[in-house]
Amino acid sequence: MNRCTVFCLFLVVSGNAAQSTLNKLCSDNLYKDSCEQVERDQDIKCQEVLSKTECILDIDRGLPTLSILNAEEAFLAAPLVSSTTTVFGEIVPANTPYQTAVVVRSGYLGGFEPLRGLKYCHPGYNHDERITKFVLEQLDWKAINLSCDTAKTLTEQKFQALSSLFGSSCRPGKWSQDDTLDSRLKKDFPSLCELCGTDGCATTYNIPLNDTLSCLTDNGGDIALTALRYADTFFSIGANAQNFQYLCPNGTLAPSSNPCTWTNQLNRLLITSNESAHVMTNYVKGKLGTYLMSDTPSSSSSVFEAHFARLLQLSRSDQIKLVDPIPLYNYVSERRTIPLVNESIQCGLTVNWSVTAEIEKNKCIWLQQASLNNGLQPVVSCVLSLDNDTVSNLDNIKQGKADLAFTNANFGYVARKKQLINIAYPETHMQQLSKIVIVVRNDTTWFKNFTDLKGRPICLPEYGGKEWLSFIDLLRSNNVVNNSCEYGKIFSEFVGQSCAPGANSKDLGISNTDVDKLCYTCYSIDATQPARYCNADPLNKFYDSLGALTCLKEASGDYAVIDLNDLPYFYSFKPSGHQEFTVIAKNGSLASYNGFNVDEDALISIIVAGEVIVKNGTAKFNDIQLYLREIEQDFALNLKKSFKLFEEFNHTKNVLFPDSTPGLTFSDSGNKYIQNYRTLLEHSETCSADNNTTGGSDRLTVPVFFAVFILTVLVRLV
Questions:
Q1: Cβ(577)–Cβ(571) below 8 Å
Q2: Contact criterion met (CB below 8 Å) for 303 and 37
Q3: CATH assignment of 22-93+267-333?
Q4: Across the strands, what pairs with 543?
Q5: What are residue 129's DSSP bridge partners?
Q6: Are 104 and 121 in contact (CB under 8 A)?
Q7: Could you tell me if 450 and 640 are in contact, meaning their C-beta atoms sit under 8 angstroms apart?
Q8: SS3 of 113, please?
Q9: Strand boundaries in 297-399, DSSP class E
Q10: Is 515 exposed, middle or buried (0-12, 13-18, 19+ CB in 10 A)?
Q11: By C-alpha distance, which of 102, 28, 23 is closest to 68?
């Protein structure tokens, strides 16, 4: 190696190293123009991510990254990160974040048992600022015990216990994300709405934590959940200081002159890695001097400072208080009580979420803590499947080791064979729907109708998958095959010697599969593997939709059934990539032009990405569905969510759910693509419910035989 080569290599390596260690400002909401201005001095680079969790995980890996966390983001991350994640400053707003307090009438002797029969003024769950159910129900869980009646959900038991404990009360707004249950709870436990006035729990509180104090004085309440800022004003009015007092979290009492609080919400925090804390502290000192609580002069221009402050979402009244670097966990735990898993479980009930990989388990643990912080029940537990694959995931649920999991549409049929059922559907962006078509080479002349496919070799992405299921359903609906329940047999008998990756898997549970026939043309891209390689994995040259097209292109099959959406982006949108193929439309005709740019009517099915499944007959069904509705609300719909469940995690896509998921929909959905998927599975389940394996017109064979036999006997007797 000559001297120039060594020197050039040194420059490349040095350049890459410098680039990888460049200080970054990480956020899920950045402004391009402000980033351009801040990056001009080349001290820091903007890193925009979909979820603030990405920033936290980068910092915890020790990367030189600066991020700003709101109170609930910090509260979530604190128990989940190492001491590497460090706080070096906080944003002090003009108005102190909320501090909750409980006000009770004088004469109350303390403790929580004497609360029985008192009239409780609760603010409800709808607030302008982010106040979680965990905070709003702290007094509830100090005072009540659940009956642990297995015939009722934890939500039903909670409101039953509240109704039994308190007298006439007011808890306005929604109690459950399930509208039917919400109405029933208010009908079953009307005393919890009696103190709200003529509108009952339909009453709207404009300032909930302040309006509870009006409930005390105007409606005759005995105890109220409020905020310290409103309580201070309340106690300064008339005789309120003599008539009311504070109830503290330990059950003791405090006078108005010496208040006690239940939750003191955090300020927003500046965080970085411990190794970067000194550098980031000096950077903030130098660039945001006018925002510092000290009189440190700023060396930055006012224009730069304005752009940097904008990126940190600082208002004019905000001030930065720099602190000695301290681990995030230590900082948060000194100021708030972090909920623990074992202490939060009610009636021994947990929802065990099955996952296929360590990264899924890690995201599940973040979901677990986010759920605890939001006061959601039941508590989630994360279970790693034995073989780290989807079939093992399904077996976890079948065997009772887990309660639920997301499974993509490829395994809907297999899930039904394992006695698993749907409980929710992740909605899917239009561009991410499974669009399944039959294709042939563009020089095909033999096809006239679907019967021409019989006996010919097929190229299939995966045996038992959504393409396989859609194809069999198409054949059945067009009476090309009989209405047999044996999908494995139908398919094996219909096609010629083919490649259907995964046909050799016994774990799928698809009976009457002709493995030799369906693995005949499969082989591996690895020369060290057996000549015939049928596993459903990337080593199989014809695995997945791109592999099926390769199979068709190489004439190892005469037609392929593929999902257009599973093709790589460059392939789907590069005309030369698919002009050599022609689509067979759902109506049995060949498309009049080559390529995949066909309308929806030509697809043999168009369905959602998958579903959330549970074991058929599980006693936890209602609790699980209520929990799913809550996480849909808190981690998808809520604009102020601390955790984004349906975004990538640790820079990895499709963890727990597809990234194309905007939220969950339940079985009463009118979404036509969900309905298409349901119909596919219902057709197979309807058939599966009939134990007769011949199906179709053959189902009358046995009864007709006996009828003819009896008629013959009667004729002979006559």
A1: yes
A2: yes
A3: 3.40.190.10
A4: none
A5: none
A6: no
A7: no
A8: helix
A9: 319-327, 350-355, 379-384
A10: middle
A11: 28
Q: What is the pLDDT of residue 377?
A: 98
Q: Report CA torsion sign: 44, 45, 49, 55.
A: negative
Query: Which portions of the chain are predicted below pLDDT 50?
Result: 1-20, 688-718
Confidence at residue 536, expressed as pLDDT on a 0 to 100 scale:
95
- Identity at 225, one-letter amino acid code: L
Q: And the tokens for 417?
A: 């064979």
Kindly state the tokens that stand for 57.
């995980």
Parse the chain into domains and list their residue ranges: 22-93+267-333, 99-264, 345-430+610-669, 434-607
The confidence score (pLDDT) of residue 12 equals: 40
99-264 has which CATH code?
Answer: 3.40.190.10
With H, G, I as helix, E, B as strand and everything else as coil, classify residue 648.
coil
Establish whether domains 345-430+610-669 and 434-607 are of one fold: yes
Q: Write the DSSP symbol of residue 502.
A: T
**End-to-end distance of the chain based on CA atoms, in angstroms?**
109
Tell me, letter by letter, the H, E, C secondary structure of 597-632: CCCHHHCCEEECCEEEEEECCCCCHHHHHHHHHHHH
Q: How many CB atoms lie within 10 A of CB 682?
A: 12
CA gap 184, 239 in Å, rounded = 40
Q: What is the DSSP letter of 671?
A: -
* Superfamily of domain covering 345-430+610-669: Periplasmic binding protein-like II (3.40.190.10)
pLDDT confidence of residue 300: 56
Question: What confidence score (pLDDT) does residue 37 get?
Answer: 93
Alpha-carbon distance of 393 to 355, in angstroms, equals 6
Q: Which residues face 87 on adjacent strands?
A: 271, 326
E strand map for 348-489 = 350-355, 379-384, 404-408, 420-426, 434-441, 458-459
Task: Please give the class, per CATH, of domain 434-607.
Answer: alpha beta
Residue that is written with structure tokens 């039917």 in the block? 180
What would the two tokens of residue 527 be?
């020369």
Neighbours of 392 (CB within 10 A): 15
Q: Which two tokens stand for residue 478?
A: 């067009």
Phi first, then psi: what are they for 76, rounded to 5°?
A: -70, -45
pLDDT in tens, 110-154: 999 999 999 999 999 999 889 999 999 999 999 999 999 999 999
CA atoms of 417 and 685, how far apart (whole Å): 9
Q: What is the pLDDT, as a whole number, of residue 668? A: 62
pLDDT 10s digits, 213-254:
999 999 999 999 999 999 999 999 999 999 999 999 999 999
Q: How far is Cα of residue 104 from the mean position of the Cα atoms in its chain? A: 40
Containing 262, the helix (H) or strand (E) segment is none
Distance between CA atoms of residues 408 and 610, nearest Å: 4
Question: Strand 664-665's sheet: what is its strand order?
Answer: 379-384, 350-355, 404-408, 610-615, 420-426, 664-665
Rounded to an integer, what distance in angstroms lies between the CA atom of residue 137 and that of residue 487?
Answer: 52
**Which structure tokens are listed for 647?**
């975004």
What size, in residues, is the chain?
A: 718
User: What is the b/e burial string over 19-36, where b = at least 16 CB atoms within 10 angstroms of the residue's CB?
Assistant: eeebbbbbbbebbeebbe
Q: What does pTM read for this prediction?
A: 0.90
Q: What is the per-residue pLDDT for 297?
A: 55
Listed as own residue / partner, the contacts of 706-713 with beta carbons closer than 8 Å and 24 or more positions apart are none
The CA-atom distances, in angstroms, between 434 and each of 376, 410, 542, 600, 606 are 33, 10, 19, 11, 5
Give the three-state DSSP class for 707. helix
Position 16: which residue type? N
